[in-house]
């Protein structure tokens, strides 16, 4: 391989992991956050994050310029590697001044922005401008007072910190909701904020527990009172949070501001989702008229509410997925029990007999009848024929 291409790939990989550090890299402490926390120790929460975002911005936007320097250094160190076949990429940088100028201009721009942000005690930093929205005439007269208030609360042990993803974090204190992002922070004051749960996504990610794969999308709306030309104006700003489902209840209990859940949002546990999938399969299995119907007026033995509406009736062919006949020990067995359970409860029972971590194979597994212990699969569960005669009907006749 051309050494130029190889070195470029190594550099790109390095850049990728600097921008998106994995948990392994974090555990070694090799992230920008970690290295900065060693040198910016004297700073408070807000000021520290202002400096951190500046350092990150500088590193990320000078990456192309660093690449040029890195390639030149390598060429200087091993001139023999590069001489015989000069890669077109390197040649481009050597002879095409325009690209080099653009790269250096980007780096210079990043430095200029960093200097501008730091000017006048960081008052020009986007975070300082963001905090200016919370100024009032009494307690918080400028953004520094707002920052001091946030810093004080962030120092308390009662704060809640949740990692949202590799790039962002959520901090909830008594009065503030702070989202820390790659290049800045989003802040809301709980006295004038509303959280709206807009959506719950379920993602099939590979984790130890399925519950971790549910994500809650929350929009935080912040109402601002602004004084403009002797006139009070109201405005709102908002930002979005994407929170792992396991932290949702904690967050809801912690915040003081109202949390509204849109009617379209459905929180589903693993069991809820399985019941839904189970119901879909059973609907395709057809119906059955059992030899002995449910006893009139009896409700499901598990929930004591719904009417029993399914029966285990062996219908599968005892073959595996490849179509081979199963050994005797694995075959489903006939169940002669009366219908005693409703579909949801039978589905929950079925799920409870399975290995929790192998949730994606549950539908292809088997369980035993809760009454007679006969083995059954999802193909062996049928809805009762809508007008199954009950014992009471038979007695009347
Ligand atoms: Zn039930
Ligand atoms: Zn049975
Ligand atoms: Zn079966």
Characterization of the model:
The structure is a single chain. The protein is α+β, with helices and mostly antiparallel strands and 397 residues long. It has three domains: 3-119, no CATH class; 155-261, Pleckstrin-homology domain (PH domain)/Phosphotyrosine-binding domain (PTB) (PH-domain like), CATH 2.30.29.30; 270-384, no CATH class. The chain is 40% helix and 19% strand. The chain has 14 helices and 13 strands. It has a four-stranded antiparallel β-sheet with strand order 1-2-3-4. It has a four-stranded mixed β-sheet with strand order 7-6-5-8, with no helix packed on it. A hairpin with a 3-residue loop joins strand 2 and strand 3 (176-181). Helix 3 (32-39) packs across helix 4 and helix 12 packs across helix 13. The radius of gyration is 32 Å and the shape is flat. Mean pLDDT is 84; it is low at 206-212. The site of one zinc ion (ZN) has 7 residues, from loops.
Q: Output the helix-strand order.
A: HHHHHHHHHHEEEEEEEHEHEEHEEEH
- SS-based structural class? alpha+beta
End-to-end distance: 89 Å
What's the oligomerization state? single chain
Largest sheet: number of strands, sense, barrel closure:
4 strands, antiparallel
Number of helices: 14
Percentage beta strand: 15-25%
Count every beta strand, where a strand is a DSSP E run of 2 or more residues. 13
Which overall shape is indicated by the principal axes computed on the Cα atoms? flat
Largest sheet strand order = 1-2-3-4
GO molecular function: ubiquitin protein ligase activity
GO biological process, one term: protein ubiquitination
Membrane topology: Multi-pass membrane protein
Keywords: Membrane, Transmembrane, Transmembrane helix
